[in-house]
Specification:
This protein is 32% helix and 18% strand. By secondary structure, it is α/β, with parallel strands linked by helices. The strands form 3 sheets. Strands 1-11-10-9-6-5-4 form a 7-stranded mixed beta sheet.
Amino acid sequence: MTYTSSARQPEPEPRPTWSRGAEQPVGGQESSAVNGAANDSNVVPITAAHAARQGASRHADTSIPSSETSAKGKKSTPTAGKVRADALRMLGCVRIATVRQMAEVITEEESDGRSYVRRAMKKLAELGLAETNGKAGRHPIWNLTPAGQKALADGNELPPRPKAGTGAKAVKAGFGPHGVAVTDMILAFGGRKHLTDWQVEVNHAIKETGLSFNADAVLALPTKTSEVRLFELDNGTMSQARLAREVWDYERYAGHRVWEGARGTIGGTFPFWQRHRYTCSQTFPRLHVVLAGKEEHLLDNRLQALADDVKGIAVAVWGNTLPRLQRGEPWYEIGVDDPDRRRRRYPEPAGR
């Protein structure tokens, strides 16, 4: 599959050249911060074919530690209390998860790990802190209850998230598979590392224009120029036109400017997002679009179509499919950040 685009990358940082079978170069500040799937250099230009493959690597977890190893080199059995606490923390971040997903993070074991988590979730359900409201296939989907959220907040385990929902309504409405796919995307992008730095269903809105949308996930992992990364996942349920429209919404959000200046002065205009949302960022955060929910060749076709539909977009957009992301394969650049082009496209606000 080959992508084509006439867009030019304005960033001054050089991009590595990928060839068939090439491995990711080692080095740089961010390469030590995240694994191969999350590294900024792990990207293939939009003109490259699906050829380069990146082996996934595992890193020790810093936020939800794996099961301890004894002095004799054998893994010790995680305590029931620790598994329950880790499950609460994970659900507080990703909102919706299955036992398999929680076991992957909490215990890093196979069937035994799932059995630990099943017992923990049964106890949390008895305590009224977690519940199931639907299934993904045969597997129950777990989410916190309001009491579980309060317990997590009282324990001061996560940054305050006052507007975060439990996810119960979405699961009851039949949207559980989408939430499970978002969790799979989170686990594939960095695995266990930085798990507590994620938030899901993060609203972005501009009252003056009526624009409002939710980013499926936001990762607070600073780079040299941006403090977060934005993520959109399509689980094979959106039309191609709607998917493209959601991606263009990010450019409309990035292009909106506001007038600022003290009374009696000329003042000037500034990007809305830089003044009121991502105040520590020099560039608009990169958008990562992940496609899932269909056979892999169909996902490849959708990725190609998306690249065509957003050709010329003036925000940085990287695309991938969930199977390729889980295998640690590179991202594909389908949009580049261009603030000058955004400013030409969107009208300046009226001054005083």
